[in-house]
Amino acid sequence: MTAQEVRLCGLLLQEHFGEVVERIGTHLLIAGTQNLRTIANETNTPLDLVKKSLCVLVQHGACEFGSGRRGPGSPVEYRASCERVLRVLRYPRYIYTAKTLYGDTGELIVEEVLQRGHMTMSNTVKTVADRLTHNMEEGRSMEYSEVVSAFSKLVETHFLQRCPPVAEMGTAATSATPATPGTPATPASTAPPTAESNPDCYKLPHVTLTGRGKRRRSSDDSEEQRGGKKVKVDSESCGDEGIYWQVNFERFHQHFRDQAIVSAVASKLDQMEFVGKSGDSGGGMYVVNLQRALANLARATLESVVQERFGSRSARIFRLLLRKRHLEQKQVEDFAMIPAKEAKDMLYTLLSENLVQLQEIPKTPDHAPSRTFYLYTVNQLPTARLLLQHCYKTVANLIERRLFETKENKRLLEKSQRIEAILASLQASGAEPEQLTEVEEMITAPERQQLEALRHHINKLDSTENQVDETVFLLESYIFSTKTK
User: Fold this and answer.
1) What pLDDT sits at residue 94?
2) 3-state secondary structure of 244
3) Could you tell me the pTM of the whole model?
4) DSSP track, 348-392
5) CB within 8 A of 413, min separation 6: which ones?
């Protein structure tokens, strides 16, 4: 775990869960596995706040807990997952993919599960049906059965999966064990079971759900915005109590990977390096070489970065070294057809940025410069790891900039939200157009212009963040494929 990863994790935790959770999560990432009281003492945080923060982290899968390393009877210990925290960065992409595949209903299902960490099927269906009903025309409502159908499709295609049962997560479950999975109440085994280890991982429970979504009143909306009331979910028994569902991130990542490979093949039909022949029986079997495909996609990403940062001639040298593996400076000049002085400057620039490596091959044991070959080369895997760290740093900088912009314009944003809430309330009560105009004019023309500029800037930062995350995903997939190989 690098400093850039810890910094980015801290920013994501602060933005989504607040400062206290960020403090506890960052401390666990740096310090490693610790028990409850050690965390409280070293972070100088009250014990009840530490408990609540750990519950939030466990609820969202960002923290694991297990029995102490000193053996039976020792305090439960907690360990934060950097990889899981970084997945928060990809939430918009998960939600958009669900919308693309399963429409608005699938989008809201995935959004609700991501926001709450895990939910029962019945609660998810009711919440999503209520949200869809609220956005429909007056007199229309969403049937529970339609939401159940979308939920079933997400499970059938493995985009949603069951959480591991609570009984399996603790070594000595007692009657005091809470029904919600992930609540740190009983010690767990050192290697808690994964969702895939459960034979019923993708088995839908028999849920008795009949009815339609309910429309929220405008007064409920205003109370909810002020934090004064939480949305209530019907407490009636539906037959799936204790069965919780979570998003299967690996399935989404598989979808992203497949789409990237298909897109790359479609744009390079003259290089079908991604498809290979396996065996000759029956005319041979054709397979997709995923490792080679990811390596080629990562290589194209590295080439693109070099071209954007250092120009097309440096990119030509970089591509040349990728293909020829080892070249002397004179060979680089000849093959790339670049003047000696320019080629030397470009090579040294790439070398200083660790994008190109220099390998010495001595002819004699004394390593005399006159009797040594100096070969330039590109090691794709270390270079991909380096670029991945740069991407983490870039995303962290984008988040910090967005938080700064929001803080600087906090008063104006709060005023805008209050006026929007008043307008929504007046429209719901059937106010006259003159009243609505009068409320809208509470924001002056300069303030409105400042708001538009701020929203444009924030949207641009969000878009850039999502684009960088696409590069992060591609590089992570390539690095992981080399480990599995």
Assistant:
1) 93
2) strand
3) 0.75
4) HHHHHTTSSEEEEEESSTT--GGGEEEEEE--HHHHHHHHHHHHH
5) 406, 451, 454
